[in-house]
Write a structure and sequence with these properties.
Chains A, B: Keywords: ATP-binding, Kinase, Nucleotide-binding, Transferase. Two copies of one chain form a homodimer. With 426 residues, the first copy, chain A, is of the alpha+beta class. Chain A is built from 16 helices and twelve strands. Chain A has two domains: 102 residues, 2-Layer Sandwich (Phosphorylase Kinase, domain 1); 306 residues, Aminoglycoside phosphotransferase (APH), C-terminal lobe (Aminoglycoside 3'-phosphotransferase, Chain: A, domain 2), CATH 3.90.1200.10.
Chain lengths: 426, 426
């Protein structure tokens, strides 16, 4: 079913004109292909100086590979339905869907060109005053309202079936939970940290905890998670935030979304240790990032608690002690998934600008080593923290105490994997 | 869609003749309705002195209530598909399906009349030499092969969708995890243990743990569980075992099936403290029951471990430490669900012969109190045991040390609920 592909610009423009409701009849429209992701086609259709819309189209294969890597087009239905569900609870935080066309495997949606890709903004050390709060609200409101705490028993199960998403889940299952923990050909490893990577491959305590996190990713149908909530799926500016691209959405562990965002803020924290620029500015920004993690978690957990207190539908789950226990479990889970994001973005297939923008390979190795070790600590110690502040204190304390361990590590990067395995988590 | 109902005996016989392949052409066939459950119709079609088959039919409502309690007929498709899947791994432990007819909402299957209902056998103190071992094998083989440990990622998710079973799950969600922990009108409580029941309703630590177990029942899609694996779903004799009625099947926590069976053996253990008969014989049978629990768990866990070692398909889950951790989690989970079965069968809607066969209300109250307290202990202490032997030792030790606490309790049954809440778990 590849014949849904637009034959040319005229077809794209005609499609936008008919399905968006955003253009005057007879308006002159232009189109540009703006997709910077790997999987889909993204077009911007606009009237010069006037309205604009985005058309996202999913073909039955991965865009940058071609027909050699087939991928279910059901992903675009899932994305459209997830966007519309998210809009039920956070209409100001997702692009508006004007139309979903199953035959074309295409969504016509709001153009969010006024917002910047969050990854680029973080690399540029932008301070976005509402970001952490708005992302906390996004997670609390979308995840609570698609969980058993809120949904009717029948509706929940019907939604689980609608959001079965095997092709996209398999990508995460492999890239997050398998590749980085073995010598996989898909991995992409800075040669200067190869011994760090090797150490992970024989780190049995870590692999055990990653297996547990993977098992939960596979089985724990807690809520409709976005499933790909990294900085590249967030657009933001000084006023607002838009979360896009929920094509990986499925019913999974709540902590996966929350942890992905924490992991991405911490990837930038690791990167800012070596990115170019003034030392004091970089250090101040790193502290801003940690504060953003705290604000994000505290907003998420505070709102989630409020929703549980006010709107838990199932009386057997409506207990103060259960609310407390669930939030403690969610913090541990989130830290664990944050750790897997830190590790897979450092030595796995898909790297991030937060680290890649460090041009010098030696300096990049230092930031990468910090990311790996931070990830390992979060995974192994995730159940030891009773608040996000305690987590951040642990990070600050470790970074201060080991101001130069990374430098030391560079000198010792040829140590055997075995000697590293026996060292403490961070 | 009630027109699938058989119009009379002739239609049932004709259906059996056409769809079972078990009868000679021209054979004289008789039919009897033998259903002793509450929900479906069950017919036995037989040639006097010759072959016989069972026809199970699901109408779109609960049989004993009528159209006032509608129930999805999809349950009979789920039962047929679950029976056939179970037969892939344990063909000797389930009735053979000759035919499933979606239009009639009916299954034609093997007659297991040579086997006795396990609940009746246990009440009669039958010693079934292969029972525990065969049930352990049933659980290990069906649950392992429908889990992420064995299944391909796509196949698992496709099966999760096929076995979404909201109507039947909702019954369990309410009867196991809600009714017994509040003053629900569906409950059926011996007035002599009313204060014991009241104590549960204000037992916050217990309600917290039951909420956690419910959350896992709702979310943990670990394997295709039978979902209703009590003694009444098992038929057995000295040689063999047949597990029937998987209409509650869905992807849920492995420990739910394992725990249901443990709970049912322990319900009989509680009942045998007061059932009529010779003291020494009853005590010896109770020890046989505990041994059966041990054999069941050890067979299950030993085979499950063997399958993990030999057939885990996902390399990231194929770790010795993960196997050990998973089995420890499964033991805790199973004990928790065993506890919920003990409690809900004692004060909830659906009672069991193991306790109901005790005619004297005072004596029944003693056995019921034991069942409740044992259930509470298993739920609260489920994570404290490192082997099934340790669990059984805990039970024996408690029963010996408190040889008369139940008698004492009878005298004190008017104590306030509050004073009981503060007493230790057993």
């Amino acid at each position: 079913m590849t014949d849904c592909k637009f034959a040319g610009d005229a077809e794209v423009i005609d499609f936008a004109r008919r399905h968006s409701g955003q253009f005057e009849a007879g308006a002159t429209l232009n189109v540009e292909e703006i997709g910077d992701g790997n999987i889909n086609f993204v077009f911007r259709v606009f009237e010069p100086g006037g309205a604009s819309v985005i058309i996202k189209q999913a073909l039955p294969y991965v865009r940058i590979i071609g027909e050699g890597w087939p991928l279910s087009q059901d992903r675009i239905r899932i994305e459209a339905e997830a966007l519309m569900l998210e809009a039920d609870y956070c209409p100001d935080l997702v692009p508006k869907v004007y139309h979903f066309d199953a035959d074309r495997s295409a969504i016509v949606m709001e153009d969010i060109g006024a917002y910047e890709n969050l990854r680029h903004a973080l690399v540029a050390r932008a301070r976005l005053p509402h970001l952490a709060d708005q992302l906390g609200r996004f997670c609390a409101d979308t995840l609570f309202h698609t969980s058993d705490l809120y949904l009717d028993a029948h509706r929940k199960k019907e939604m689980v079936a609608r959001f079965i998403n095997p092709d996209l889940c398999k990508i995460t299952e492999d890239l997050f939970f398998w590749d980085p923990y073995c010598d996989h050909e898909r991995n992409n490893i800075n040669p200067l940290i190869h011994s760090e990577a090797e150490a992970l491959w024989s780190d049995e305590p870590l692999k055990l905890e990653v297996a547990r996190l993977k098992h939960r990713f596979l089985c724990a149908a807690e809520a409709l998670v976005h499933g790909d909530l990294h900085s590249g799926s967030v657009f933001a500016n000084a006023e607002g935030t838009r979360v896009i691209d929920p094509e990986f959405a499925y019913f999974g562990p709540i902590g996966f979304d929350v942890g992905s965002l924490i992991g991405n803020l911490l990837l930038n924290y690791a990167g800012q240790s070596q990115l170019p620029g003034d030392d004091a500015e970089r250090q101040a920004y790193r502290e801003w990032l940690l504060q953003a993690v705290a604000t994000f978690w505290n907003t998420f957990s505070g709102r989630f608690l409020g929703h549980m207190e006010a709107h838990t539908a199932d009386p057997s789950l409506d207990l103060p002690a259960y609310r407390e226990a669930l939030l403690a479990d969610l913090l541990a889970d989130s830290l664990g998934y944050a750790g897997t994001e830190l590790i897979r973005r450092t030595i796995g297939l898909a790297h991030v600008l937060d680290l890649e923008a460090i041009e010098d390979a030696q300096q990049r190795a230092q930031a990468e080593t910090l990311a790996l070790r931070l990830g390992r600590t979060l995974i192994l110690e995730r159940r030891a923290f009773d608040s996000i502040e305690a987590v951040l204190e642990r990070i600050r304390e470790w970074v201060t105490r080991n101001a130069s361990p990374v430098t030391r590590f560079r000198c010792a990067s040829l140590r055997s994997a075995a000697s590293y395995v026996s060292s403490p988590a961070l």
